[in-house]
Amino acid sequence: MKKILLSCVILAMTACGGSSGGDDDNSVSSSSVSSSSSSLASSSSSSLASSSSSSSFDPECPQGKHIVGYFPSWQGDVQDIQYQYLTHIMYSFVLPNDNGSLQALDDDSIAELGDLVLLAHAQDVKVGIALGGWNDGDDSAFVELASNSETRATFVSNIIDFVVQHNLDGVDMDWEYPSTNDEAEDYTALMTELRAALDELSGDKFLTAAVIAQGDWNGQYIQSAVFDQVDFFNIMAYDEYQAINHSTLAYATTSIDYWENRGLSREKTVLGVPFYARPSWATYSSYVDADPANACTDSVGDNYYNGIPTIRIKSELANDRVCGMMMWELSQDTHDETSLLKAMWEVVAGQELSYICD
Questions:
Q1: Is residue 269 within a helix (H) or strand (E), and if so which, with residue range?
Q2: Are the C-beta atoms of 330 and 58 separated by less than 8 Å?
Q3: Structure confidence at residue 57 (pLDDT)
């Protein structure tokens, strides 16, 4: 009965707004979220990722339910990451050159990545390298290297060497974004060749991609042929174009709709959420540090983010329709009872909610 009531809340909310969002789209009652229950029972992050655990097995998510966090090289401390609530961490970013070589990480980043791998693997959390990122909208290196079979091969070879050298578990492609028909073809070729090369390594290496939320920008240039090459897509259901509230429940729902209608399977779909506000770009943690009550709302002044109630109901949406959650990014979270990552994990793992908003 609780599950039915929550589904009614979701349906009622999404019926009130379109993809452009609005203040009311994210207004979620914490009491309705607190009374919800999840069909997934698990007590650790590793059991979320493993389909061998009968308690966490979901036939529609045969590889488990993923909780994916990006960790940037330029901020945060790997010692502060709450590994117990994660299945995957994407270290961000390694940038390509147009000849297929990689821009080198500095010594501090290399040491940090090594520490991250050791700490994550100790808790059965997988670590991948994220390639690219927004990079001020400059994806020219990807465009150039992917257009030529020789530079594609060089790039793939360099990525494989990087994965092996740093004992990584996989690769996350973050080319933002292919934007022409030719680039779409080249993206597909690059992902296909990278998948084949990863499959030659031992240890079942993953290939994922961060993708735009919908087709109203460049999502249409990620061809459906890529779906077979990836373990899953991380859907960036935030930064909605020209929206005052950039990451509403309605936007999350229509983003899932878009990729589902494109033919992406549930098991290969992961819903992304932000740990920051727009237009300020301030972190969730900074707002909570200023006033703990901000953990239970979605705005401070004219700046919009996702507080605990909204993260919980988006996590319920993910439980119902996809196979996991992703966030940008881990260093923007708190590390106490107000943690968004913890709130997310409790819903996905079917745990009792530890922090109740008034």
A1: strand 269-274
A2: no
A3: 60
Nearest to 308 by CA among 290, 331, 324, 285: 285
Q: Which residue has the higher pLDDT, 186 or 23?
A: 186
Q: How far apart are the first and last CA of the chain?
A: 23
| Three-class DSSP labels, 171-182 | EEEEECCCCCHH
Residue closest to 177 by CA, chosen among 127, 128, 233: 233
pLDDT in the model for residue 237: 98
Query: Do the beta carbons of residue 345 and residue 45 sit within 8 Å?
Result: yes
In three-state secondary structure terms, 342 is helix
Give the bridge partners for 270, in sequence order.
Answer: 234
Paired with 138 in beta bridges are none
- Are 155 and 105 a contacting pair, CB within 8 Å? no
Q: How many CA atoms lie within 13 A of 64 on its CB side?
A: 23
Give the separation between CA 23 and CA 212, rounded to whole angstroms: 22
pTM above 0.70, yes or no: yes
